[in-house]
């Protein structure tokens, strides 16, 4: 593209927008989808797991709304593949909230997850939600055992002869070969990771996969009900092992197979007793200086994740990752860009403060600043507007007129207090203004209803103008988000201990507008 292509978007003298079409084209040109800097999710998953295919588990929409279900399902698959690739079992979920992702990772994939959130209310809610989920898990488990018992009675008169079982055992034994998988993974990961970053051995995972696949095959041969198979998807891997060790007639198995299954059962029981709770919600405020070992006493090699970490928390997650040798990988999806702190926004001298933006040295050297209005715009959802989910014009109009009122009547131009979601709780514009004034701790008694409505009528004809302005902000939103995300990616590229880092589009942007993940893996020498 020539440098002059977008030069006529704004008037050179007045700096006003004069060509809306070119403005939209310029914004599209600068979006992530057009810049070609993202790594496709499919490529990342293929490189991480090699020939190991993903497992199908419980459907998250049984416990979550459609948006959260989509996010947890997609992100958990990526996280478990990164964990398996790095040979780690511990995950730290930063800004875990109510524990949707944490509880799913622990129960579905048997990972040991610490969910850290600054809100004690969220932590308590996560504890309660986790308790209910475990109860749900146990109900499925009990139902599965009952069905197994009845199925065994039905199969008693239709059991295959010993020779057929041995034949199948021989044919199905070489399910996976660790060495061949390892070498294939090393080849495919080179497409994403620089030379020198080789695959971390995951023999324990491969052995576990073999045990699970043998158990699943035997269930299929027994023609158990679909409900029992669904239970196996719900339960952690250790529960599957216990199940499989008891559902066959041991007289039909060779001594070596008996010994192997007995050992697997003992290991599963030991694991179950020592890790009866694989998800631990904790309350703590995370900063760039946070020592995780002070919060997590049994900290080991792990990875950090964050699903919609708010404001500076996303930036601090990356800083902690680069600074702590125990953390081998990170997968972070940020949100709430308007809450980011900016080093060059107010020109304040705070030499020791750690800022949310910019992170990379390149933008720091240029003294780059977005400003709050731009960061607010970055939070808008272009894809949703594109499919017909229009902006809440009326609530935006209410908010704009309210600002005029508090400036002209009360002389307030800046406040630390927020109106929040007052619009949805208001029956009229008058009701909205009075509730908002109370939240801002301003006296509404000196403001009659007639005065409030005068302001409404004065600006009502400009509502379409406001809508057009906000549509332009929506078009510009992806460009501002690009700047923030590329700043985080460049920060990782500047670090010496990172083997690979990238931006990956995880979610459907209509379901989840903040859909990009910043992912990084440390070099092998850091393991």
TrEMBL record:
Superkingdom as given in the UniProt entry: Eukaryota
Matching SUPFAM superfamilies: S-adenosyl-L-methionine-dependent methyltransferases (SSF53335)
Pfam families assigned to the protein according to its UniProt record, in alphabetical order: Methyltransf_32
Domain Methyltransferase stretches: 67-343
Name used for this protein in its record: MET25 protein
Organism annotation: Herpetotheres cachinnans
Gene from which the chain derives: Mettl25
């Amino acid at each position: 593209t020539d440098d002059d292509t977008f030069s006529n978007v704004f008037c050179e003298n007045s700096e006003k927008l004069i060509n809306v079409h070119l403005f939209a084209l310029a914004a599209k040109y600068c979006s992530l989808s057009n810049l070609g800097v993202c790594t496709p999710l499919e490529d990342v998953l293929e490189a991480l797991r090699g020939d190991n295919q993903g497992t199908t588990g419980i459907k998250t929409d049984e416990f979550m709304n459609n948006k959260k279900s989509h996010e947890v399902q997609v992100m958990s698959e990526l996280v478990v593949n990164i964990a398996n690739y790095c040979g780690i079992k511990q995950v730290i979920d930063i800004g875990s909230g109510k524990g949707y992702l944490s509880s799913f990772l622990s129960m579905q994939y048997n990972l040991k997850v610490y969910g850290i959130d600054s809100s004690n209310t969220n932590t308590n809610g996560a504890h309660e939600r986790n308790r209910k989920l475990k109860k749900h898990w146990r109900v499925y488990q009990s139902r599965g055992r009952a069905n197994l018992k009845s199925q065994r009675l039905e199969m008693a008169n239709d059991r295959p002869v010993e020779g057929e079982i041995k034949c199948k055992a021989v044919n199905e034994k070489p399910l996976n070969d660790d060495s061949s998988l390892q070498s294939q993974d090393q080849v495919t990961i080179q497409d994403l990771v620089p030379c020198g970053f080789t695959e971390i051995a995951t023999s324990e995972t491969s052995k576990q996969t073999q045990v699970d696949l043998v158990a699943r095959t035997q269930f299929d041969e027994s023609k158990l009900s679909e409900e029992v198979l669904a239970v196996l998807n719900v339960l952690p891997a250790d529960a599957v092992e216990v199940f499989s060790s008891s559902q066959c007639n041991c007289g039909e198995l060779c001594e070596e197979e008996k010994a192997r299954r007995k050992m697997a059962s003992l290991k599963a029981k030991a694991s179950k007793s020592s890790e009866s709770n694989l998800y631990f919600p904790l309350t703590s405020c995370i900063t760039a200086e946070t020592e995780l070992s002070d919060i997590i006493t049994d900290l080991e090699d792990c990875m950090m994740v964050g699903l919609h970490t708010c404001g500076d928390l996303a930036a601090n997650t990356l800083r902690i990752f680069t600074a702590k040798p125990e953390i081998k990988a990170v997968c972070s999806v940020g949100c709430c860009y308007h809450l980011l702190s900016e080093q060059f926004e107010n020109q304040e001298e705070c030499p020791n403060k750690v800022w949310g933006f910019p992170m990379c040295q390149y933008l720091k050297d240029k003294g780059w600043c977005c400003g709050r209005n731009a960061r607010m715009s970055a939070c808008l959802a272009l894809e949703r507007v594109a499919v017909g989910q229009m902006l809440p014009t009326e609530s935006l109009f209410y908010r704009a007129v309210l600002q005029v009122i508090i400036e002209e009547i009360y002389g307030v131009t800046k406040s630390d207090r927020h109106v929040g979601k007052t619009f949805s709780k208001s029956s009229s514009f008058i009701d909205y203004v009075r509730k908002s004034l109370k939240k801002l701790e301003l006296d509404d008694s000196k403001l009659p209803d007639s005065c409030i409505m005068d302001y409404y009528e004065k600006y009502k004809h400009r509502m379409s103008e406001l809508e057009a302005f906000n549509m332009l902000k929506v078009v510009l939103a992806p460009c501002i988000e690009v700047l923030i995300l590329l700043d985080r990616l460049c920060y990782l590229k500047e670090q010496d201990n990172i083997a690979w880092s990238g931006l990956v589009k995880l979610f459907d942007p209509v379901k989840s507008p903040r859909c990009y993940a910043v992912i990084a893996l440390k070099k092998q020498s850091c393991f």
